[in-house]
Amino acid sequence: MAPTSVDSASSPTQSVHIPEGPELAIGSLGTAQDGKYQAVISNLNETSGSKAVERQTLDRLVDGATSLPPSTYSSIYVVLTSSDYSSLLPNLKPLLKQLLDGLNPLGKLYLLDPTSEFFNLPDELTLSGFSVIESTSDTEEPRIVAQKPATPTSTPIPSKPPANGALPLRRKADPARQASKKAVWTLSSPSTPTIDGETLLTDADRARPIPTCEPVTAGAPRRKKACKNCSCGLAELEAEEALAEKVVLLDINGAVEVGSGEEEKQRLLAAAKAAPKATSSCGNCFLGDAFRCASCPYLGLPAFNPGEKVEIDLSTDDI
């Protein structure tokens, strides 16, 4: 590459301010093999004067192995092969952002020998923050030259109205529309009348329920006993059954019906307490059916304490 391809960039729009800082040359393995990268570095060493010339490879910047220090370089020269430019397109935006950050204000970016695809690049450069000052494709040494602005391209939104007193127009809110939207998300519409739950109750609903006994059904077991102040006849029925009930006394000799009536029951209870304690032949009668013999007279009866007289009321529904 001829030395004039690097340092002959001039444009009427170029600022007279010369940015300070070293110059950077970015190359690739392909341009290092064909000698273009070395030619650019040699030309920069001859024309840069007192400025230092730094070197960097494209793959290290694209892969994130290194990054450019912000606001450091006065100019950056990128020299690549055609295949390098084509493979760079997917990673072009982050690379342009890194190059823009690495340049000082009014610093320049030189893309040397770009492919035909890169001559649509000025739009990408503008979107990245550069100002394109040269784009030549019809010469023997095509190149694109862009410059970093002296100030950021994005301007902050003013916090005060403009000097002419103009204010931005605001859309007038429709109260009816806002009310209709609000009504959609409310649980009850304002036009819906409310109902007091107390007005739905009658005097019968407010009356305190009076406990009653369960009606007696002939031939069916009873689940409840007579309540206090019973007036349905269940208390009298239970009294008659208590007088007519039969008492069965169980001991070691078997089950024997001995009488009926409350007086007979009390007499038998007293006799049972005074009688000597019965003994079991196997010693397991009181434990329950799981431990009793096949001929045990206590089969089917609940477990009891050893020596205790077992009594069963024949009037119960469980027998």
How would you sum up this structure in a few lines?
By secondary structure, the protein is an alpha/beta fold.
Explain what you see.
- The protein is α/β, with parallel strands linked by helices.
- Helix content is 28%, strand content 17%.
- It contains eleven helices and nine strands.
- Strands 2-1-3-4-6-5 form a six-stranded mixed sheet, with helices on both faces. It has a three-stranded antiparallel sheet with strand order 8-7-9, with helices on one face.
- 17% of the residues are buried.
- Mean pLDDT is 74; it is low at 1-5 and 7-15.
- Kindly estimate the percentage of residues that lie in beta strands according to DSSP: 15-25%
User: Helix and strand string, N-terminal first?
Assistant: HEHHEHEHHEHEEHHHEEHE
The major pleated sheet works out as: 6 strands, mixed
By DSSP, the count of extended strands is: 9
**End-to-end C-alpha gap:** 119 Å
Strand line-up across the major sheet = 2-1-3-4-6-5
State the low-pLDDT regions, or none.
1-5, 7-15
Residue-averaged pLDDT: 74
Q: Could you tell me the radius of gyration in angstroms?
A: 55 Å
Proportion in helices: 25-40%
Any key phrases for this structure?
disordered N terminus; 11 helices; 17% strand; alpha/beta; single chain
Write the layout of secondary structure elements.
Elements: H1 4-7, E1 23-27, H2 29-34, H3 36-47, E2 53-57, H4 58-62, E3 73-79, H5 82-88, H6 92-102, E4 103-112, H7 122-128, E5 131-136, E6 143-147, H8 175-184, H9 203-206, H10 234-244, E7 246-251, E8 254-260, H11 262-274, E9 310-313
Parallel strand pairs: 1-2, 1-3, 3-4
Antiparallel strand pairs: 4-6, 5-6, 7-8, 7-9
